[in-house]
């Protein structure tokens, strides 16, 4: 139960912050947003404010902000449909009625032959009372009436595609940006709670069965020297072990004012942060965490956000390189099932590890969404950059085809990763 609750909170926070970034900058740019959704599939909760319908959907596999003129909308009116319309005194359509849950007066019925609710803003068809072919413009403020809701039809100036490249770029980039900001805030809060590592060579804790643990080192032991060489900083100790052979070393520690001699033999640890593996000598200790400064958590929060982003960027690069080297495996990826299992494991360790894990996931979500893959933010940003350079948008049909291919590719990858996670964790 703890795992399920933790996953819902973590997933909900990451997706909500990401999509809110898009929504916030879209509204600042004057883009109409008919829907803000967390999750996919059937609606389980909805709330309407102004022109935006806020929904929570059943499947926890993402979310979206539906922006007018972004290509996500589908025309709900097709040729051959019979719809009711209401007009104003200027003979402009103010309501296209797609259900019978509203009682409008002075309406007309139309068998639709053609319609456009984005560019030309008109509806054409056969008037069911006069049997004549008619064409009506769409009013500046007009609505679809569907499922009991009034859904505003966006005027041209409130559509994403009619904005200049810079507002488009900011709107698309805002989702990943808000994930990076969330990670920064979480890391800063984490370090305010735990403290920041001191630069002194003081033991903050030892790992079980590590060389330090076997040698008898305990928390708050201060390392004075190694093989007679004076040690004052943490970096002095780590660089000494990495620059000498793996052998037994004599270390002098200060414990409660008394100097003690210990014999310790480091072990080699493989560190994989890029496509190659680095080796380093470790003795299995962590630095002491202190609360000496109000500024240090801010500094460590910024550093950790940056270093986490760099690590994930390198791992993503290694992942793509593995496709060409033939070493790719779906085990390198985690889908919703894998994230759930890892969240469950981390949540069992306590709230602080879960905060750190959530911050790392937030950085990961931001970077993954910036990948230049159609249907992701990064792919759509490429279209905006093309428009800014060549002073014209990408051909609409070509853009739809490219994004559709990207969406199918992502759907396939999601299915394969999810199935692989199920086999890995449950069989």
Automatic annotation (TrEMBL):
Keyword Hydrolase belongs to the record: yes
A GO molecular function held by the record: metal ion binding
Documented EC number(s): 3.4.24.-
Requisite cofactors: Zn(2+)
EC main group: hydrolase
Alphabetized UniProt keyword annotations: Hydrolase, Membrane, Metal-binding, Metalloprotease, Protease, Transmembrane, Transmembrane helix, Zinc
Transmembrane regions listed in the UniProt entry: 6-25, 169-193, 310-334, 346-365, 401-419
Record membrane topology: Multi-pass membrane protein
Domain Peptidase M50: 7-412
Gene Ontology cellular-component terms listed: membrane
A Pfam family reported for this protein in Swiss-Prot or TrEMBL: Peptidase_M50
Superkingdom assignment: Bacteria
GO biological process terms, semicolon-separated: proteolysis
Localization: Membrane
Cross-referenced InterPro entries: PDZ_sf (IPR036034), Pept_M50_Zn (IPR004387), Peptidase_M50 (IPR008915)
Entry-linked CDD domains: cpPDZ_EcRseP-like (cd23081), S2P-M50_PDZ_RseP-like (cd06163)
Family, per entry: Belongs to the peptidase M50B family.
NCBIfam families xrefs: RIP metalloprotease RseP (TIGR00054)
UniProt cross-references to PANTHER family, sorted A to Z: MEMBRANE METALLOPROTEASE ARASP2, CHLOROPLASTIC-RELATED (PTHR42837:SF2), REGULATOR OF SIGMA-E PROTEASE RSEP (PTHR42837)
Name of the protein this chain belongs to: Zinc metalloprotease
